Sequence to fold (136 residues):
Amino acid sequence: MTMPDDMKAHNAKVIADFRANGGVPDGRPLLLLTTTGAKTGRSRTTPMMFVPDGERLLVIASNAGAPRHPDWYRNLAANPEVTVEVTGERYDATAIVTTGEERDRLFASIAAKYPFFTEHQAKIERTIPVVALVRR
Fold:
């Protein structure tokens, strides 16, 4: 997967298209996650893929295999109250970072379906977090 040169501009376009169309017309597993900046206190919205898991949605903080956690993850670790937008819906949620056996089981299940996450994990020393978004 090739990353855009200007990720901020790319994400802004994805967010605008998502909101203009009420979601993703082709049904891709994409959501918008709005977190509160850990340092700034400002709202930050990030488009990302998700995996349904019963009543909750899972997001994976792989950061495309970068050595650091993504900013959105650091934000929700500091303030787990987030807003989720999925096709046709917007709601408040609590972000719960899974741990231990649950995290390992979820990551293995997700990586079986999306092998690029295994490739991301192999490139780095940090453990890629799996975050459950639970509707409030």
About this structure: The longest helix spans residues 7-21. The longest strand covers residues 89-97. The chain has four helices and seven strands. The mean pLDDT is 94.
